[in-house]
Task: structure prediction
Amino acid sequence: MSLEIQLRSDPSHTLVADVLVVGVLQTGPKGGLSPALKPLDAALGGVLAKIVAKEEFTGKRDQSLTFATLGRIPADKVVLLGLGERRAVGAPDVRTFAAKAAKAANVEKASSLALALPAGLEGELRAVAEGLELGAYRFNKYMTGDRKPKATLGSVIVGVAAKLRPTAKATIALGQQVAAAVNFSRDLSKEPPNVLYPETFAQAAEKAAKESALKVVTFDFKEIRRRGMKLIDAVGRGSAREPRLVHISWTPKGAKRKMVFVGKGITFDTGGISIKPAAGMGDMKHDMSGAANVVGLMLAVAALKPKVEVHAIAACAENMPDGDAYRPGDIWGSLDGKTVEIVNTDAEGRLVLADALAYARTLSPDVIVDNATLTGACVVALGSTCSGWYCGHEDTAREFAAALKQSGEQMWRMPLLEDLRDQVKSDVADVKQAGDRYGGSITAALFLREFAGPGRWIHCDIAGPAALERPIAWMQAKGASGHGVLTFLAMVERASR
Result:
């Protein structure tokens, strides 16, 4: 359920809520109480200045300070959050600030929150709304009795220092819709694998798409086989849960460009015949995060209504060991026509993506972007808080880098090293599914390039189960679902200008 967000131009110390969170810009090198905090300090009887001095709080980025008000103002508790220097604060930082505020309210078991936005940041209301919804997010669907949260954040007052624009309420509403779309992808990722499998993923995506007036088509296993998507067939055949391919589209009149986003949807990954160790296998329910991301993206696109044609393709399968499962040593065809030698059934994500990329090419897009929880090698290279991305076209790479800057998400460009290409050459087929141990994220990208074709293409190897950094750290608990959605949406927005 969405938060009830109100906008007020009243002083922060007069706002009525369980918790008051105040954003504080960094003061000069001498420190001292920020002029913006002096009215609040006066209302608190001078206590604030003493606490700030004692704790050496200067408003540095990520600094925080929490204290009880003892009834001096309407809020029971005050939380000061440092934003850093004003010149360095943009929409991503405001989003993170708002998300931290909502998370702090949840920690304090608050049902209401007042958020004091520093002067000069009134133009970032969409980021405020996004952050509040992302930070307030909880997945407690399966909690009962004492395990269910006793209080839930339901209402927020956003206090601003300047006169609001007439479009302020609409901006807040759009931010909430964008965040709800991201939260939908997070919900999908957190569902247990006995509840969410290819068929039910497709049903959830279809329902959400139709409610947002998006076009949606789902290919069942029979249609996947009829179309020659042999690699999706290979991965999904070992499970009693049949694979699905979901295609959601936004096709406005007068569209300036056409963009296709592809997501890996392995709803549970045992590793197949090349079975994984038991430790950590429970997290493999998140291996459909790429597919969840592209569905969430489309819901955000429906809210934004850009003059860009946008398609999402989610290739879904469950990778299980079975008498009919595909094996190391197999050779399979593909929608593209290339034959693939299988060397490891636990490198299944690139296979479903290969057929999905070949299908994406039939739409004749201006750019294809795929995303997947694809390789542990990328986590080894970049850590668990940063995703890797690949692109062989410099103009497209510049566009993606600009979108990353706009979103604030943490990703690092990785190289498509041509001298590793021999690792995906096969002695018995057109290509080999996986390369050697080292450079695994790069060879996976090189494999995908074989199916993405010569056009403009970006591959995102999204970070694994650890919480992701700005602005995702405050929206993530586990899984990578949601990471990348804001960047992909920024790409769409920029293309729509």
Q: What stands out?
A: DSSP finds 14 helices and 17 strands in the chain. The radius of gyration is 24 Å. The CA atoms of residues 5 and 399 lie 33 Å apart.
